[in-house]
Amino acid sequence: MIFSTSCEKRKDNTIKNNILTFLVTCTGGSLDACNSGCAGKYPDVTGDNYPAASACFSACSTNCNLSTTLLLLTNK
Prior knowledge:
The protein is mainly alpha-helical. It is built from four helices and no strands. Helix 2 (31-41) runs antiparallel to helix 3 (49-63).
């Protein structure tokens, strides 16, 4: 016995998802704003604060990279 299923066309949300990801992960909306936020959270980047501050600045570099965002937007 063969069962027939109807297939629905999947809506492409790639651009919407990538813009949302950029807005959520790039704190402040720009690299400078994100880095300023990290500097405000971790004014003393030594000792115990170093790993957290380093992770914060690294996340800014990754998440606020406009080249990466443009590649994600054009990758459909």
